[in-house]
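User: I'm putting together notes for a lab meeting next week and I want to include a structural view of one of the chains we've been expressing. I don't have a solved structure, so I'd like a prediction I can at least talk through. The sequence is below, exactly as it appears in our construct file.
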Amino acid sequence: MLDFSGKTVLVTGGSRGIGAATVRAFASRGANVAFNYNKNYRAADLLKQECEKFDGNIFFMECDVSAYNEVELFLKKMGDKMENVDILVNNAGIWIEANIDSYTVDMWRKTIQVNLDSVFYFTTLIARQMREHNTKGSIINISSTAGQVGEKNYSHYAASKGGIISFTKSVAQELGPDGIRVNCIAPGWIETDMTEAIMKTNKSKIKKMMPLGFIPEPQDISNGILFLASDMARAITGEVLNINGGSVLCG
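Assistant: Thanks for the context. Below is the predicted structure for the 251-residue chain, given as structure tokens.
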């Protein structure tokens, strides 16, 4: 089993879905883990209690990742409790259904701010910290297959996720000489509370899209994150790892 004892991991949007699975995965492998939540304190607190049975420290705090001043405050408070970050997982995101005729300027801006701006905020601040402390770190950004092939009625979401892929490839080139790896994971359909409503009416149709015959779960994504964060992936940077059951095959 991969061991992250002594490592400090930061997961954005860590209180549910892929984020919560990632927090559990690192905590169960000895890491100190920090995560933010937005409004749902109970879910965040329950996750903290669940992870306290492991050896590492757990820190969580409410933070609107789309607001730069809140991100700065979160990192300051985290810094009072934990060592410098070794692994950053930019996972926080929103998903609002609306076609090109109905989505508003506010919908567009909120989607870009939460999904893309937050990746910029956390990456720049943590990369600066990693460089200052000569940390050979790993940054993993969660994109989507929508960012590779587009998605009907989610063009604003697809735009934000496509931006993450380009950002990942660019920053990987900048930070590589410092020993900091930057990679991306592109999930397809995943069974989470964010997709629950669609799964209720379209699960069988979605399942048929999967050559492997099943819809991936959050743990399938967190397994990929563990790999990219580990020394097993020491020669991998600027890459997009697709975890989607084969529903979208991107080279």
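A couple of points you could mention at the meeting. Helices lie at 17-27, 41-51, 68-81, 105-132, 146-149, 155-175, 196-208, 218-229. The mean pLDDT is 93.

User: Perfect, that's what I needed.
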